[in-house]
Specification:
The protein is of the alpha/beta class. The protein contains eleven helices and nine strands. The longest helix is centred in the C-terminal third of the chain and has 23 residues.
Length: 256
């Protein structure tokens, strides 16, 4: 399956900048600047043409300093109703949007309003508990982050059946829930228990979604590629693996 899906990502020699996927990352805070940067760089390595980060003003210069490849804009002090105009504008520009990595200071109602306007969301981290009412999106929680879903719907499977969402439940064996079905992904390794690998996953999934894969396929291929990149990183670095080690290997896994 993975080879067939990767073949669907082949780009035309006649394509122009932006035609192979535009991704928006909404996240980051003074405390967590690395998370949106990891997601953004992973989205680029997974093949997206353009990636923008929308973050808090105080986090912007720190995130920009991580890489010359990052395009970083600010929504102001915190994500609230004043942030919506810019967020919605960029959400319409993007072919998919990751919301949540490193996002700690936000108004729940503002996130809900943004989700009503935006399409093709990949919802991660703190944004998950704020957006469990949304429909037809991808959620990428670990077990603890999935608790609000279980509390409201009983199970991830019921959530996807009722809301049309897709869930990538991160774990030693990832479980992908899509329209009431459950798929398992067994790539990955013990070294991926470190922080940040979930941000890489969210960026990869959003990149595949932006490039035209449906939610189920973007989720399944994203989990596979992220896990395989983790395995390769673990071969090189063992328990010294860090999340940024996965990013270049994402491109290697896809290429090979």
């Amino acid at each position: 399956m993975s080879t067939e899906l990767i073949e669907k990502l082949e780009r035309s020699s006649k394509s122009h900048k932006g035609e192979n996927g535009k991704v928006l990352i909404i996240g980051g805070s003074r405390k967590y600047t690395g998370a949106p940067a990891l997601a953004a760089e992973a989205a680029l390595r997974a093949g997206a043409d353009l990636v923008k980060i929308l973050t808090a003003e105080e986090a912007k210069p720190v995130i920009q300093g991580f890489s010359e490849n990052l395009i970083v804009e600010s929504y102001g002090e915190r994500f609230d109703d004043k942030s919506l105009e810019k967020a919605v504008e960029l959400g319409k520009w993007a072919d998919s949007t990751v919301i949540g990595p490193g996002l700690t200071d936000f108004d729940k109602s503002a996130l809900e309003k943004f989700a009503e306007e935006a399409e093709k969301l990949v919802i991660d981290a703190e944004a998950i508990k704020a957006l469990t009412e949304t429909e037809a999106n991808i959620f990428t929680p670990h077990s603890g982050e999935a608790e609000p879903i279980r509390e409201k719907y009983g199970s991830e499977k019921a959530f996807t059946s009722q809301k049309g969402n897709t869930v990538v439940l991160k774990g030693r064996t990832d479980k992908i829930y899509a329209e009431g079905e459950v798929f398992e992904n067994e790539t990955g390794c013990a070294g991926m228990t470190i922080g940040g690998t979930g941000d890489v996953l969210a960026g990869v999934v959003a990149s595949f979604k932006a490039q035209g894969l449906g939610d189920e396929n973007a989720a399944r291929l994203g989990a596979f590629v992220n896990g395989r990149a983790g395995e390769k990183a673990y071969e090189r670095y063992g328990n010294g693996l860090v999340a940024s080690d996965l990013i270049d290997l994402v491109a290697e896994v896809i290429k090979n």
